[in-house]
Design a protein that fits this description.
Helices cover 28% and strands 24% of the residues. By secondary structure, it is of the alpha/beta class. It has 2 domains: 150 residues, Medium-chain alcohol dehydrogenases, catalytic domain (Quinone Oxidoreductase, Chain A, domain 1); 155 residues, NAD(P)-binding Rossmann-like Domain (Rossmann fold), CATH 3.40.50. α6 links the parallel β11 and β12. It is globular. The model has no long low-confidence stretch (mean pLDDT 97). The structure holds NADPH dihydro-nicotinamide-adenine-dinucleotide phosphate. NADPH dihydro-nicotinamide-adenine-dinucleotide phosphate binds next to α2, α3 and α6. InterPro entries: ADH-like_C (IPR013149), ADH_N_2 (IPR041694), ER (IPR020843), GroES-like_sf (IPR011032), MDR_fam (IPR045010), NAD(P)-bd_dom_sf (IPR036291). Keywords: Oxidoreductase. This is NADP-dependent oxidoreductase.
Length: 337
């Protein structure tokens, strides 16, 4: 059983020394347990937070412990009712080949799911995050303008496409012309602005001449700065993530703008609400699964994945994810290396 354990807590960007690959015997299931073999491992920005022992909504991974992560696995052997060998399951087994489970919190995807790995993306946690954050906090109304960063990632791409289905004007923010082209041509966004362009703030202003009613915050930093310049009265900002800051080691230099921001919130009567998807909206998961399942079946939501073969590729692929290297949802496929 190959597994990545946390070797040291990163300062700034994770490095080759952050995680260590080790090999232990494949665990033996006892009564009431099943043995799961990982087929796909999800890579997600929140994993950076789990590497750190700074205060957070979830406890950090301990030094020497297996790195956490969502997985799509197959049942090898099982003594649990409802789980039989060869079933595909959605579980949380972390960065390793095999894991034992008592079945709690594990969803059975059946023998023949059409796209098993999609349960780690549009049909799972990131898709649910987009759906719930936009609908519950964003409260979109037809004709309003939504802006979302990470526009080709699993959360951003889903936010934008749901926004279009609800009749909104959707402007994405992504790194580079290829990703922006994908957002407009494949995902159906009305426009997409490249945050790496020197005149990014001007381009965003030109793309949002009616202002911004909903900013779905995935990014923070200079993207947030540019958005605030265009924000409308009564705007809603679901605060989902701040990925541009996850490797930061301190606050940026410059004047303290906290009171300026509070003044803007007051004048614009903005609603800014953070959320942690399952803590805040877990009860809505069945509703999400039904609605998203129907949209996918009807071909109304597009989904792009970037599959990388080999568990040993996971650390490098994760570092790249935080730097905007992924184009679509990044997933590690095990067993093919
Ligand atoms: P993505 O696959 O979209 O990956 C992150 C993307 O962020 C990169 O691809 C990159 O976009 C962009 N990015 C990184 N650094 C910068 C930067 N300095 N400036 C602008 N863009 C940058 O991630 P997900 O779709 O999985 O997640 C999106 C957000 O949602 C994250 O912030 C994540 O933490 C958050 N999240 C929050 C949850 C919650 O419960 N609150 C649950 C799930 C996710 P590009 O490729 O265009 O360069």
């Amino acid at each position: 059983n190959r597994r990545f354990v946390l070797a040291e807590r990163p300062k700034g960007e994770p490095t080759d020394a952050t995680l260590r690959l080790d090999t232990v015997p494949v665990p033996e299931p006892k009564a009431g347990q099943m043995l799961l073999r990982t087929e796909y491992l999800s890579l997600d920005p929140y994993m950076r937070g789990r590497m750190s022992d700074a205060p957070s909504y979830a406890p950090p991974v301990g030094i020497g412990e297996v790195m956490v992560g969502g997985t799509v696995s197959r049942v090898v052997s099982s003594s649990i009712e409802g789980f039989a060998p060869d079933d595909w399951v959605l579980s949380f087994n972390g960065w390793q080949d095999y894991a034992l489970s008592d079945g709690k919190g594990v969803a059975n995807l059946g023998r023949n799911p059409l796209h098993p790995s999609w349960a780690l993306g549009v049909l799972g946690m990131p898709g649910f995050t987009a759906w719930a954050g936009l609908k519950q906090i964003g409260q979109p109304k037809a004709g309003e303008t939504i802006v979302v960063g990470g526009a080709t990632g699993p959360v951003g791409a889903t936010v934008g496409q749901i926004g279009k289905l609800l009749g909104c004007n959707v402007v994405g923010i992504a790194g580079g012309t290829e990703k922006c082209g994908h957002a407009v041509n494949t995902l159906g966004f009305d426009a997409c602005v490249d945050y790496k362009a020197a005149d990014f703030a001007d381009q965003l202003a030109a793309a949002t001449t009616d202002g911004i009613d909903i900013y779905f915050e995935n990014i923070g930093g200079k993207v947030l700065d540019a958005v605030l310049g265009q924000i409308n009265t009564n705007a809603r900002i679901p605060v989902c993530g701040l990925v541009s800051q996850y490797n930061a080691t301190g606050l940026p230099d410059g004047p303290d703008r906290l009171n300026w921001l509070m003044g803007l919130i007051l004048r614009k009567r903005m609603t800014i609400r953070g959320f942690i998807i399952f803590e805040d909206f877990g009860h809505l998961y069945p509703e999400f699964a039904k609605e998203m399942g129907a949209w996918i079946e009807a071909g109304q939501i597009q989904y792009r994945e970037e599959i990388i073969d080999g568990l040993e590729q996971a650390p490098g692929a994760f570092i790249g994810l935080l730097n905007g290297e992924a184009f679509g949802k990044r997933v590690i496929r095990l067993g093919k290396s």
